[in-house]
Structure formats: C-alpha cells, structure tokens
C-alpha cells in the first residue's frame, strides 16, 4: 500500500494546476461513490484553495495497491472510473485500507464509511471524525432490495431458499442490513436464505444477468441500471432500518488535527461552504445535471442519491446505533465510547454552520 503524496501532478498528467504542490497540501485518501462525491465536487470547484486549505486527493484502482492523485476533471475521473480496458474502477478502495494508510502516515485525512470508522476506533485507531459526507434519510433512502427479474415473491415465505447478495462496503458490509431485512419479514438469515457478502459492483451486475443470485441490496444508481436493462425489479426501498445509518465521514489523524487545528478548520470550512452553496441551487437546476460525480439528484422508484446535511455535522446518535448492529453481528467485540473520536467543533465554528 504505497502513496505518492509528493509526486509532481503535472508529470502524472492528472491535476489541472500543472504544478507540484508543497508540504502545505493536506493529503486526503478517498473512496468514491454516492456518499463521497460531495467532497469531490468541493475539490473540483476549488473551494479548498479559496479557503487557504490546499489539498491533494488520492485514491486507487480496484485490486491495486498504489494510491495516485485524483484528477481535478470530471471527464478524466469518469474515464478512470469506468473507461475501457482492465484498469478501471478507480476509487474502489475499502475504508479499512484507507484507515491503515492514514495510520501509516501516508495521508492526513481520509474518507470512510460508518462501519470502517467504528471498527477502527474500537481498536483504538488515533483518528477523529470532523464532518459528515452524504447519507440517506428516512423518506428518501438510497438503497433497496432488488429482485432478479422473473423471481416471484408473493409472501415473505417465498424468500426461503433464495440467494441474496450484499455489496462490498466496509467491515460487515451491507450484509448487516440484509440480515435485518430478512429478520424484518420473520425469517432467519442463517437458515432460511443464503447471504453472499462483499460482492463488487461488476460481479453483482453479472450475477443478475446470469441468474446466480435471486436479489441484492443495491444503491440507487445500480438499481436504476438493473431495472432499465431489464434484469431487476425493485421489491422494497430500505425502510426496515433507518437508512441514515449508512453515512460517510471525513476523518483526520488525531495528531495532525492537534498540531494543525487552523488547517483542519479551513479545510472543514471549505467543505461546509461547498455543501451550503449546493443546497442553494434550485432543484430543477440540480436535476438537469446527469454526469456521474456532479449529479446530486437521481429520483428512481422511491430512491434518491445520498445528500449532505447543511451543515454536515457528524451524527453521533447514528454512529451509536450502527455500533450496536456491528456488535450484535460480531464485527466488533464490544461497544466503545465514540464521543472522543468525534470533533464537531471545527464545523460548528464555520460561517456556513451558523447559517
């Protein structure tokens, strides 16, 4: 797992600035998906430079170990995410890998999902969450149970013997939510169904096409694609647990935040202002943007993309609820006090948070 934080961006041909950054850059390791694109847009539109918090973002390709700079270009980003050839799926990196790189000193901050964060602090990782990324909410979930077209479910009992898949998504994966779904319909997830965990998105699409699974817990973009391509049908948007439990976080090394509170504050202020400015854009204008990464609205069959709160405060109550589920499923050994690992002070003192 190697980062190249001081490589010249111009030589790599990835950053629009065309210049090598100095040591004042905040090095941010990222995954990319529905919850984290809100931070990418702040990066793309220059918010961090305007707040004197220059940053360089890094991620890596699925299956690779080296982190490389994230392009400040949506078309380049899209090409790296899903372009032709074997080197694709840029940004598909686990929260655990990002936390390990943070601990190794490769980054000053990382983006992680709630499960990766909880698993890390449960073992005493020296980090602190300073702001939330996007998340789902009651009434506008971002995930649903999608059945393979042709699978007939007339009653909950019809799920017996079915094979249900969960996407790769941090410690415990989305199988945690799948298990709660199966329990909510009165079945035993250990005996009545087969749960397949940690399936990457490409494999999930293939499994729907070839019939090797009967259904899956899918995010809105994949749900829309499967339905439009004729491979899936929406059975039930997530409502059996609070969909807001699925959230992303911006996490700093604790020692970096202690040594450079002013830099962290400027970084958080830049991000919060980007979120606030997005919230001011009329809904009709937002709905007209369809480019992946820039799109903020995707209404489909009761689902929508995750949204960032304004201000994007970390919800400690949601983290505690998720920790309870992780303990119940044996992903973490016991509950710990999460309060020392969350610092909303950087955000609460910003101008955007006061609005």
In summary, what is this structure?
This protein is 35% helix and 18% strand. It has 355 residues and is an alpha/beta fold.
Can you tell me the CATH class of the largest domain? Alpha Beta
Q: How would you classify the helix and strand content by structural class?
A: alpha/beta
Q: Based on the structure given, which CATH architecture of the largest domain is correct? A: 3-Layer(aba) Sandwich
- The CATH superfamily of the largest domain turns out to be Periplasmic binding protein-like II
Strand content: 15-25%
The major beta sheet can be summarized as:
7 strands, mixed
Structure characteristics:
globular, 2 domains, D-Maltodextrin-Binding Protein, domain 2, 5-stranded mixed sheet, 7-stranded mixed sheet, alpha/beta, 15 helices, single chain, 355 residues
Structural description of this entry:
- The protein has 355 residues and is an alpha/beta fold.
- It has two domains: 2-137 and 245-296 and 305-354, Periplasmic binding protein-like II (D-Maltodextrin-Binding Protein, domain 2, 3-Layer(aba) Sandwich), CATH 3.40.190; 143-237, D-Maltodextrin-Binding Protein, domain 2.
- Helices cover 35% and strands 18% of the residues.
- It is built from 15 helices and twelve strands.
- It has a seven-stranded mixed beta sheet with strand order 1-4-3-2-5-12-6, sandwiched between helices.
- The chain is globular, with a radius of gyration of 20 Å.
- The protein starts with a strand and ends with a helix.
- Residues 4-22 have low confidence and may be disordered.
